[in-house]
Amino acid sequence: KAGVTQTPRYLIKTRGQQVTLSCSPISGHRSVSWYQQTPGQGLQFLFEYFSETQRNKGNFPGRFSGRQFSNSRSEMNVSTLELGDSALYLCASSLAGRGGSYNEQFFGPGTRLTVL
Amino acid sequence: AQRVTQPEKLLSVFKGAPVELKCNYSYSGSPELFWYVQYSRQRLQLLLRHISRESIKGFTADLNKGETSFHLKKPFAQEEDSAMYYCAPRAELIQGAQKLVFGQGTRLTINP
Lengths: 116, 112
Fold this sequence. Notes:
The structure holds 2 protein chains of 2 kinds.
Chain A: E1 5-7, E2 10-13, E3 19-24, E4 31-38, E5 42-50, E6 53-57, E7 64-68, E8 74-78, E9 87-94, E10 106-107, E11 111-115
Parallel strand pairs in A: 2-11
Antiparallel strand pairs in A: 1-3, 3-8, 4-5, 4-9, 5-6, 7-8, 9-10, 9-11
Chain B: E1 3-5, E2 10-14, E3 19-21, E4 24-26, E5 33-38, E6 45-49, E7 60-61, E8 72-74, E9 83-89, E10 106-111
Parallel strand pairs in B: 2-10
Antiparallel strand pairs in B: 1-4, 3-8, 5-6, 5-9, 7-8, 9-10
Protein backbone atom coordinates (compact mmCIF):
# COMPACT_ATOMS: atom_id res chain seq x y z
CA LYS A 1 0.00 0.00 0.00
CA ALA A 2 1.24 3.47 -0.77
CA GLY A 3 1.80 5.65 2.27
CA VAL A 4 0.41 9.05 3.05
CA THR A 5 1.54 11.59 0.48
CA GLN A 6 1.74 15.33 0.89
CA THR A 7 2.23 17.99 -1.75
CA PRO A 8 4.12 20.13 -2.15
CA ARG A 9 7.06 19.05 -0.04
CA TYR A 10 8.53 22.52 0.19
CA LEU A 11 6.95 25.92 -0.13
CA ILE A 12 8.19 29.48 0.23
CA LYS A 13 5.70 32.30 0.64
CA THR A 14 5.74 35.89 1.79
CA ARG A 15 3.79 37.48 4.58
CA GLY A 16 0.19 38.19 3.76
CA GLN A 17 -0.10 35.51 1.11
CA GLN A 18 -2.21 32.40 1.45
CA VAL A 19 -1.24 28.79 0.93
CA THR A 20 -2.97 25.46 0.32
CA LEU A 21 -1.40 22.17 1.30
CA SER A 22 -2.63 18.80 0.12
CA CYS A 23 -2.73 15.37 1.73
CA SER A 24 -3.64 12.03 0.17
CA PRO A 25 -4.35 9.39 2.82
CA ILE A 26 -3.66 5.69 2.61
CA SER A 27 -6.32 3.97 0.53
CA GLY A 28 -9.29 3.08 2.70
CA HIS A 29 -8.45 5.54 5.46
CA ARG A 30 -11.26 7.98 6.16
CA SER A 31 -9.74 10.04 8.95
CA VAL A 32 -7.18 12.71 8.18
CA SER A 33 -5.50 14.82 10.83
CA TRP A 34 -3.18 17.78 10.46
CA TYR A 35 -0.37 18.79 12.81
CA GLN A 36 2.02 21.72 12.87
CA GLN A 37 5.60 21.04 13.94
CA THR A 38 7.94 23.83 15.01
CA PRO A 39 11.16 23.81 17.05
CA GLY A 40 9.61 25.99 19.73
CA GLN A 41 6.13 24.52 20.10
CA GLY A 42 6.73 20.96 18.97
CA LEU A 43 3.88 19.02 17.40
CA GLN A 44 0.51 20.68 17.71
CA PHE A 45 -2.82 19.38 16.53
CA LEU A 46 -4.62 21.52 13.97
CA PHE A 47 -7.74 19.58 13.04
CA GLU A 48 -9.15 16.21 12.06
CA TYR A 49 -11.54 15.36 9.26
CA PHE A 50 -13.70 12.30 8.95
CA SER A 51 -16.17 11.69 6.15
CA GLU A 52 -15.78 15.24 4.89
CA THR A 53 -16.63 16.71 8.30
CA GLN A 54 -14.31 18.43 10.72
CA ARG A 55 -14.50 16.25 13.80
CA ASN A 56 -11.99 17.96 16.02
CA LYS A 57 -10.10 21.24 16.10
CA GLY A 58 -7.02 22.52 17.88
CA ASN A 59 -6.28 25.96 19.24
CA PHE A 60 -5.29 27.76 16.08
CA PRO A 61 -6.69 31.01 14.71
CA GLY A 62 -9.36 31.04 12.04
CA ARG A 63 -6.70 31.71 9.39
CA PHE A 64 -6.10 27.98 9.48
CA SER A 65 -8.81 26.00 7.77
CA GLY A 66 -9.22 22.70 6.06
CA ARG A 67 -11.53 20.46 4.17
CA GLN A 68 -11.88 16.89 3.10
CA PHE A 69 -13.18 15.55 -0.17
CA SER A 70 -15.34 12.53 -0.86
CA ASN A 71 -12.25 10.48 -1.75
CA SER A 72 -10.83 11.33 1.72
CA ARG A 73 -8.11 13.58 0.32
CA SER A 74 -7.68 16.65 2.45
CA GLU A 75 -6.42 20.17 2.04
CA MET A 76 -5.47 22.75 4.59
CA ASN A 77 -5.37 26.44 3.90
CA VAL A 78 -3.60 29.21 5.73
CA SER A 79 -4.60 32.75 4.84
CA THR A 80 -2.75 35.99 5.56
CA LEU A 81 0.49 34.21 6.32
CA GLU A 82 2.64 35.35 9.22
CA LEU A 83 6.31 34.71 9.86
CA GLY A 84 5.34 32.44 12.75
CA ASP A 85 3.50 30.11 10.40
CA SER A 86 6.82 28.80 9.15
CA ALA A 87 6.74 25.15 10.12
CA LEU A 88 6.57 21.56 8.99
CA TYR A 89 2.94 20.61 8.43
CA LEU A 90 2.24 16.93 8.91
CA CYS A 91 -0.77 15.02 7.77
CA ALA A 92 -1.79 11.68 9.26
CA SER A 93 -4.44 9.22 8.17
CA SER A 94 -6.10 6.36 9.98
CA LEU A 95 -8.84 3.79 9.59
CA ALA A 96 -10.73 5.47 12.40
CA GLY A 97 -14.46 5.10 12.26
CA ARG A 98 -17.23 6.54 14.33
CA GLY A 99 -16.48 4.23 17.27
CA GLY A 100 -14.44 5.14 20.30
CA SER A 101 -11.29 3.14 19.71
CA TYR A 102 -8.06 4.72 18.56
CA ASN A 103 -6.64 3.60 15.28
CA GLU A 104 -2.97 4.02 14.47
CA GLN A 105 -2.23 7.21 12.60
CA PHE A 106 0.18 6.97 9.69
CA PHE A 107 2.08 10.14 9.02
CA GLY A 108 3.14 11.70 5.78
CA PRO A 109 6.56 13.24 5.12
CA GLY A 110 5.27 16.75 5.72
CA THR A 111 5.25 20.01 3.84
CA ARG A 112 7.95 22.47 4.88
CA LEU A 113 6.47 25.97 4.71
CA THR A 114 8.77 28.98 4.94
CA VAL A 115 7.23 32.43 5.27
CA LEU A 116 9.51 35.35 4.41
CA ALA B 1 -7.17 19.51 29.30
CA GLN B 2 -4.69 16.78 28.57
CA ARG B 3 -1.06 17.74 29.05
CA VAL B 4 2.13 15.81 28.62
CA THR B 5 5.64 16.60 29.82
CA GLN B 6 8.85 15.10 28.59
CA PRO B 7 11.41 16.67 30.91
CA GLU B 8 14.51 15.77 28.91
CA LYS B 9 14.98 17.45 25.53
CA LEU B 10 18.23 15.59 24.99
CA LEU B 11 19.36 12.23 26.31
CA SER B 12 22.66 10.60 25.54
CA VAL B 13 23.64 7.10 26.63
CA PHE B 14 26.27 4.58 25.62
CA LYS B 15 25.50 1.52 23.56
CA GLY B 16 24.55 -1.37 25.80
CA ALA B 17 23.46 0.87 28.66
CA PRO B 18 19.85 1.02 29.89
CA VAL B 19 17.76 3.89 28.67
CA GLU B 20 14.67 5.51 30.14
CA LEU B 21 12.74 8.32 28.49
CA LYS B 22 10.42 10.04 30.90
CA CYS B 23 6.86 11.08 30.25
CA ASN B 24 4.38 12.55 32.71
CA TYR B 25 0.82 13.39 31.82
CA SER B 26 -2.30 15.00 33.16
CA TYR B 27 -5.52 13.44 32.02
CA SER B 28 -9.16 13.35 32.94
CA GLY B 29 -10.79 9.98 32.61
CA SER B 30 -9.04 6.85 31.39
CA PRO B 31 -5.92 7.74 29.47
CA GLU B 32 -4.78 6.23 26.23
CA LEU B 33 -1.07 6.74 25.81
CA PHE B 34 1.36 6.19 22.98
CA TRP B 35 5.01 6.58 22.15
CA TYR B 36 5.87 7.77 18.66
CA VAL B 37 9.36 7.74 17.17
CA GLN B 38 10.99 9.60 14.33
CA TYR B 39 14.26 8.21 13.00
CA SER B 40 16.54 10.41 10.94
CA ARG B 41 15.01 11.19 7.54
CA GLN B 42 12.02 8.97 8.24
CA ARG B 43 8.39 9.63 9.04
CA LEU B 44 6.89 9.82 12.44
CA GLN B 45 5.64 6.36 13.37
CA LEU B 46 3.92 4.59 16.22
CA LEU B 47 6.27 2.72 18.54
CA LEU B 48 4.10 1.60 21.44
CA ARG B 49 0.60 1.91 22.79
CA HIS B 50 -0.05 1.25 26.45
CA ILE B 51 -3.14 -0.86 25.82
CA SER B 52 -1.23 -3.56 23.95
CA ARG B 53 1.46 -3.92 26.66
CA GLU B 54 3.80 -5.29 24.01
CA SER B 55 7.51 -4.84 23.52
CA ILE B 56 8.63 -3.25 20.29
CA LYS B 57 12.31 -3.18 19.34
CA GLY B 58 13.06 -4.06 22.94
CA PHE B 59 11.21 -1.03 24.31
CA THR B 60 8.50 -1.27 26.94
CA ALA B 61 6.39 1.33 28.67
CA ASP B 62 4.25 0.90 31.74
CA LEU B 63 1.39 3.17 32.58
CA ASN B 64 1.64 4.26 36.21
CA LYS B 65 -1.64 5.90 37.06
CA GLY B 66 -0.52 6.79 40.56
CA GLU B 67 2.47 8.78 39.32
CA THR B 68 0.73 9.71 36.06
CA SER B 69 3.76 8.52 34.16
CA PHE B 70 4.38 6.49 31.03
CA HIS B 71 8.15 6.15 30.85
CA LEU B 72 9.75 4.35 27.92
CA LYS B 73 12.47 1.86 28.80
CA LYS B 74 14.97 -0.39 27.13
CA PRO B 75 17.51 -2.47 29.05
CA PHE B 76 20.29 -2.38 26.46
CA ALA B 77 20.44 0.56 24.05
CA GLN B 78 21.55 0.06 20.46
CA GLU B 79 22.92 2.63 18.05
CA GLU B 80 19.86 2.30 15.80
CA ASP B 81 17.72 3.56 18.68
CA SER B 82 19.02 7.08 18.12
CA ALA B 83 15.94 9.08 17.20
CA MET B 84 13.39 11.60 18.39
CA TYR B 85 10.81 10.13 20.76
CA TYR B 86 7.40 11.62 21.51
CA CYS B 87 5.01 10.69 24.26
CA ALA B 88 1.42 11.30 23.17
CA PRO B 89 -1.78 10.83 25.11
CA ARG B 90 -4.91 10.68 23.08
CA ALA B 91 -7.31 13.56 23.57
CA GLU B 92 -10.77 12.10 23.41
CA LEU B 93 -13.02 15.07 22.97
CA ILE B 94 -15.69 13.32 21.02
CA GLN B 95 -16.19 9.69 20.23
CA GLY B 96 -13.86 8.40 17.60
CA ALA B 97 -11.64 11.49 17.51
CA GLN B 98 -8.04 10.71 16.75
CA LYS B 99 -6.40 13.80 18.24
CA LEU B 100 -3.06 13.25 19.92
CA VAL B 101 -1.43 15.66 22.33
CA PHE B 102 2.31 15.40 21.74
CA GLY B 103 5.02 16.13 24.24
CA GLN B 104 7.99 18.25 23.23
CA GLY B 105 9.98 15.17 22.44
CA THR B 106 13.29 13.74 23.63
CA ARG B 107 16.19 13.38 21.26
CA LEU B 108 17.95 10.16 22.16
CA THR B 109 21.53 9.66 21.06
CA ILE B 110 23.27 6.35 21.52
CA ASN B 111 27.01 6.67 21.63
CA PRO B 112 29.15 3.78 20.36
